[in-house]
Amino acid sequence: MFATPRSLYRAFALSEGVTWTLLLGALLIRALFGINPILLTVIGGLHGAVFLGYGVSAALIGVNNRWGLGRTVLAIALAIIPFATVPFEISAERKGRLVGQWRRTKSDDARDSNWFDGLYRWFINRPILLAFVLLVVISAIFATLLYIGPPGGWGQD
């Protein structure tokens, strides 16, 4: 399904944009007409899950395509701003930063000799296990965020 880093990134970047649109639209409808709060909760939860998935996929692709820490963190941080991932994706596409295959084997690149790249390749070669581990991590983060509640309510107990 996600044969290349580009296909994974584009799927999550598109999903991030769609869920931002749904969330902002639901907020607007709530402000103008009032809607059932459960609808906003469902859309917010969907967007939150896609947001976390985008962050994980951006990190995975940043490692795979050797974006460097700064560019990878920027890709993740831009998901906080509505639709900011769009210009990032356009720029990454133009500059060839989404091109290439998954790094499944060790290359002559000296960076492939460190433990992290070895672990990365081990997981990339086991995509079902990788998907499971990432799903568990995303679920744990999502559950923690649901538990602590929205930022506006922190520390008011």
UniProtKB/TrEMBL annotation:
Domain DUF3817 per the UniProt entry, residue ranges: 8-93
Which InterPro entries is this protein grouped with? Answer: DUF3817_TM (IPR023845)
Record's subcellular location: Cell membrane
- The UniProt transmembrane annotation reads 12-33, 40-63, 69-88, 128-148
Q: Which domain of life is it from?
A: Bacteria
Coiled-coil blocks: none
Query: Which cellular components does GO assign to this protein?
Result: plasma membrane
Q: Which Pfam families match?
A: DUF3817
Q: What is this protein called?
A: Integral membrane protein
Recite the UniProt keywords alphabetically.
Cell membrane, Membrane, Transmembrane, Transmembrane helix
Membrane-protein topology: Multi-pass membrane protein
